[in-house]
Amino acid sequence: MAAALRIGFSPLASAPKGTIVALCDEGLRFGPATQQALGPVADTIARAAGTARFKGAAGSAIELLAPAGLAIDRLVVVGTGKSEGRTEADIVRLGGTALGKILGSAKDAVLFAETADGPLTANQAADLALGAQLRAYEFDRYKTKKKDGDEPRPDLRLTIAVGDVAAVRRAFARRDAVAGGVRLARDLVNEPPNVLFPAEFARRCLELKQLGVTVEVLDVKAMQKLGMNALLGVGQGSAHDSRLVVMRWNGGRKGTPPVSFIGKGVCFDTGGISIKPAAGMEDMKGDMAGAAAVTGLMHALASRKARVNAVGAIGVVENMPDGRAQRPGDIVTAMSGQTIEIINTDAEGRLVLADVLWYVVKRFKPQFMVNLATLTGAIIIALGHEHAGLFSNDDRLAERLTAAGLATGEKLWRLPLAKEYDKLIDSKFADVKNTGGRPAGSITAAQFLQRFVADNTPWAHLDIAGTGMGSPQTDINKSWGSGFGVRLLDRLVADHYEE
Length: 499
Hints:
Elements (H helix, E strand, L loop, with lengths): L4 E7 L7 E7 L6 H7 L3 H11 L8 E5 L8 E8 L6 H15 L5 E5 L1 E2 L2 E2 L2 H15 L19 E7 L2 H26 L7 H9 L7 E5 L1 H7 L2 H7 L7 E8 L8 E11 L19 H15 L5 E11 L11 E3 L5 E3 L7 H16 L4 E5 L4 H6 L4 E5 L2 H14 L3 E3 L4 H4 L9 E2 L7 H10 L8 E5 L22 H11 L3
Parallel strand pairs: 1-8, 2-4, 2-5, 5-8, 11-12, 11-15, 14-18, 15-19, 16-17
Antiparallel strand pairs: 3-4, 6-7, 9-10, 10-12, 13-14, 16-19
């Protein structure tokens, strides 16, 4: 199992032990407390830096083992780069970088949370700790054997030396809750599909009751009664029945309309009758990353007692090609009453979301709806793995989401919605067809979803196919499932919607 990371805080004046991690700006400039602690080895650091051509660039590091003059095991110096223009996301990444240099080798370490400009602020020090938490995540629960020569990764106690311990602890409490939500989302995405099928996903959502979240699970019979034939059609070929999970956190004033988040939860996607190629199909266990992000977000909001009313709703299905499976050419009637011609059974996520969007807007009348889905491969062609696609009917919501993405490093790029694209999904036989073909595939998918957003509700669709699974390996994420969306949406709520 993955080693545990325990984070604590101490004053900068504390005597270091074990491993020291020191931060330096370009030009090998240290903060005053760090400089005092390293005093006896200053010349050694300078010589080592010269030999290694280390100049303090962001993300770079040098290491000295058992440096003479200090009663420590190891010294790691991590570069922060230039101080001007350093962002919140940079600090979070720095925390991940610092932890990565000692993870697996140290048992006890002290990280000095100061630069040449002085101690990091309480929020910056807390962001540093958040980055370390995110970097420490590892999913290895199914590994029973280690490679020859591999030693178990030791548990690590990381003490972060800060200017104001009490202030940092307060600032870290929220980030610790958010990190818990990210870990939950990553766990869900990483789980194999024979373990995480719809009923099991719903059971894990029920565990949020321990945090004060109200959780309802609707089975097939309940969804049939509601007329959710679009969602149910996707899962009718699977041995695992579909579920709709509704999670509610009531942390705001009674009667205040909730904010709402909707997730696509296709636990495994074969493509159905329009079956996918075999190569890479194992990745389709991650086709529920949108639902995982919503679940992780609800965990985060409840854990930090967010002062907001929030609804998280996820449609959890499995898309399989047996004799009962939905066929190309079928026409289904969604909960909204709109009829949908099935052109491609592999365009299934939008069918799931269509019914869940309508259900949420009609039942809860939310302030806004944001849905997340690993919806289209086309978004990866357009944006790669660095940005998720953003589509919205509301400029203010889109701007707030974009700003939250820049702040957290979970970046979004807005793409257009227009009548010209909407015409591409008109059907000859029904109200709408579930795909408009290859051109503008991500846009026509968003146009489809927009048809199920009622009552002029502000709405945004995040296509996270390139960021939610098979995600880039970064200083704060070494996991196949990134948990993308949890920090982004928590930031949106914190900045604009808490009372």
